[in-house]
Amino acid sequence: MSLLRKLIRESVRKIILEADHVGALARLPGLSLLVNNRQRTITLDLQNNGHLIASAELKLISGQDEPCIPQTMSISTIHVAPEYQNIGLSDLLLDLVFYHASTLDGGKGRGITTDFQGGNTPIINYIIKRALQDPAYY
What pTM was estimated for this model as a whole? Predict the structure, then answer.
């Protein structure tokens, strides 16, 4: 295993072992993360014993040479299966989204935005706004 992979794995381990996520992890000992990078879309899937239980999708909305902030990703969807809601998975998934975006482009990271006005459900707006108040995200 390369040094980079070891560092990434250790950073992810630190994120998910934070006190905020201990409850969700204790309830789901079979939890795993699958990241799928396609050209302009990245999907982060949480699985429990191989079954998809939560997912977030990021889409690249600006390229390197476009006038807005370069390499900006939009959180286009976050979904948690109904039977797995209210145990902290959306917070864990959002932490993983922010972490993954920070590792892109050789560690330079990418900006993240979302649509507070139209595309999000009220709960995801609440989760994102709460996360943005945390200085650790900056």
Answer: 0.69
